[in-house]
Amino acid sequence: MKSRVFQALVIGALVNGAAAGAQTIGHAAPTVAAPESGTTVVSGRTVAASDSSHSYAAQALRFETHWGSADIIRGADGPVIGTVGWFRDFDVEKLVASSPQAVTEARAFKTNNFRGSLVGGIGALTLAVGTLITANSSNNAASPILIIAGAGAMVWGVQHLNAGYSKLSRAFWWYNRDLTR
Amino acid sequence: MSRLPRFCLVGYLILISSPTAMAQDRSYDQNALRLDGHFGDVSIVRGIDGTVVGRIGVFRGIDVAKVVEASPNAVTEAREFQRNYRPGTIALGLGLISLGASVGASQFHDMNRGITTGLTIATVGLITYGGGRLQQAYNALHKSLWWYNRDLK
């Protein structure tokens, strides 16, 4: 009896392996050929797919930006679970800890975000000081230098903030990928 | 011996979940979209390899709705992106030109103060309006890609 069960499991696994091969061929794979009863197998596959889709819908992360900060949102219209951006220190690494690749990208985001915020902030301050000096009609030779240096630092900072958000996008891509398992 | 098919079916059902998930993983790995930005150049890329599907641009940008047409929710958000992106970029561009003009005008001491004030107000208004529309556009784009990736089979 035990050997029959074992045989049955082996045969089942072999048939299943062939079916899995058929599934991975294309993006929209055709219905899997059933070994014994088509309806049972098809419904099993549908349940598995809908479970994973449900998991993605409920758990997958994305973000929405608002003037230099970004709200991290879970699900299509789900709750805001944290805010990142200018001098915010929400722990994204901890949030995506379940996916190693996502953690690497989250770390890169943190570095870029800090540098971008710091240099961009200093640049904005320098630009504002330079503009104020110029607006007060004082013939200070430093004002054009302050404006140019401030604008340059702001551009550098914005580039780093953009690079940071690209890393955040990648981090969530990896995190969401690992949800479907 | 008549129990054999039943055992086969049980064995199959026990093992069915893992290959299904594996197939879904491969589909995500190959087809899921994300945004990638380098020095002001924003692209939509596909899969682990990061194959560039298209670049986001004002005049010759990719048709995002067409890229995500497999998912109806993604198409809705892509249209929202397209509705906001061009006006946002144009307003922001005009705002930056106005900023340059207002800084330039402030250098001339005999310039009418009303002109400088007007340019400054226009600058703030255009940058705020353009930035707001661009934010709406990019938020819709992120959501569109999110829906597309969710609906990958």
Strand content of chain A: 5-15%
Category by helix and strand content of chain A: mainly alpha
Low-confidence stretches of chain A: 8-50
Uncertain segments of chain B are 13-20
Average pLDDT level of chain A: 73
Beta-strand content bin of chain B: 5-15%
C-alpha-based Rg of chain B, rounded:
25 Å
| Spatial strand sequence of the major β-sheet of chain B | 1-2-3
Q: Total strand count of chain B, please?
A: 3
Counting DSSP H or I runs of 4 or more residues, the number of helices of chain A is 5
Describe the protein in words.
Chain A is mainly alpha-helical and 181 residues long. Chain A has two domains: 2-58, no CATH class; 62-179, no CATH class. Chain A contains five helices and three strands, in the order ααβββααα. In chain A, strands 1-2-3 form a three-stranded antiparallel beta sheet. With 153 residues, chain B is mainly alpha-helical. Chain B has two domains: 1-29; 63-150. Chain B is 70% helix and 11% strand. Chain B is built from four helices and three strands, in the order αβββααα. Residues 13-20 of chain B have low confidence and may be disordered. Chains A and B meet through α1, α2, β1, α4 and α5 of A and α1, β1, α3 and α4 of B.
Q: Concise description?
A:
The complex is a heterodimer of chains A (181) and B (153). Chain A is mainly alpha-helical and 181 residues long. Helices cover 67% and strands 10% of the residues of chain A.
Record the SSE blueprint:
The complex is a heterodimer of chains A (181) and B (153).
Chain A: H1 2-23, H2 38-59, E1 61-66, E2 69-74, E3 80-85, H3 92-95, H4 100-135, H5 142-179
Antiparallel strand pairs in A: 1-2, 2-3
Helix pairs in contact in A: 4-5
Chain B: H1 3-31, E1 33-38, E2 41-46, E3 51-55, H2 64-67, H3 72-107, H4 113-150
Antiparallel strand pairs in B: 1-2, 2-3
Q: Which features does this protein show?
A:
heterodimer, A: 181 residues, mainly alpha, 2 domains, 3-stranded antiparallel beta sheet, 5 helices, 3 strands, 10% strand, B: 153 residues, 4 helices, 11% strand, elongated
